[in-house]
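Batch manifest line 265
LIGAND: NAP
JOB: complex structure
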Amino acid sequence: MKIGFIGAGNMARAIATGLVNSGLAPQNISCISGDDPTAANLAKDLGANLAANREELISFGDIVLLAFKPNHLETITPEEGDFAEGKVVLSILAGRTLADLAKAFPKAANIVRVMPNTPAAIGAGVATYCFQNEPSDELKANVEKILGALGTAYQVVEEQLHIATVINGCGPAFYFRIVQLLGEIAEKHGLDKNLAMTLASETAIGSCQLFNQSDKSAQELIDAVTSPNGVTHALLQSLDRNGFPNVLEVSAQDAVDRSVELSEG
Ligand SMILES: NC(=O)c1ccc[n+]([C@@H]2O[C@H](COP(=O)([O-])OP(=O)(O)OC[C@H]3O[C@@H](n4cnc5c(N)ncnc54)[C@H](OP(=O)(O)O)[C@@H]3O)[C@@H](O)[C@H]2O)c1
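JOB STATUS: finished
ARTIFACT:
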């Protein structure tokens, strides 16, 4: 697999570094960026190639990976787009649809649209992705290898990317907000705020790991920590009484609506 990165910032660095660490020779990677030296730095750090221009970059490999800001897609010229003839274009650009990408790269053999998330920076990301056309087994394996550099990845169909975006793309901000709010609440109750946030985040990590490793359902795990009329029971009853499930449903719908709106330009 040879892969060329357009954009060499945080996400490209995480993917390229993960690929090299998993055995891809750095000579099989090329990159280019904007006016700042992110691509030069990435190429130097990994021993990868630095492309002189986008035509050279797009011609370099079998896969062209787009890792610049979403609004820069329109800077791809028709001539540059044509250089991707027969290649696979993989995009991590938030909100840019397969149709947008196909407009920029009309001759690509296949296009992969990915929604990664920020824990990718520490290899703990979870990505969702979809293909323009049914992929070959080899392409699927290569995409899984590339996204494996960021954590885990799951295939969906494009329409599902709106709700997937809310869950895995916006998810980190949701969990950071929970940790922040619990810290503020604990402070009001006289507990050190930083300690409370650490307790909240470590409890979230432990609970989710338990959920992932257990064969029990979420409800069974809830039941296992809830005694009748106990403290957890009081917390859960209050959350339901005060509309927590409804708040989540309405907020998720608002975010899905915004995702649809953005994808329609
Ligand atoms: N960070 C996340 O967790 C996350 C989550 C979901 C989606 N994404 C998507 O991932 C993409 C990259 O995010 P990031 O956090 O890695 O961004 P970033 O660190 O800001 O990197 C952006 C890169 O794009 C380059 N660039 C700027 N103008 C360019 C141009 N005209 N042509 C080509 N390259 C250009 C920059 O180069 P110079 O600075 O060297 O000029 C830099 O290498 C975004 O589209 C974002 O929507 C990121």
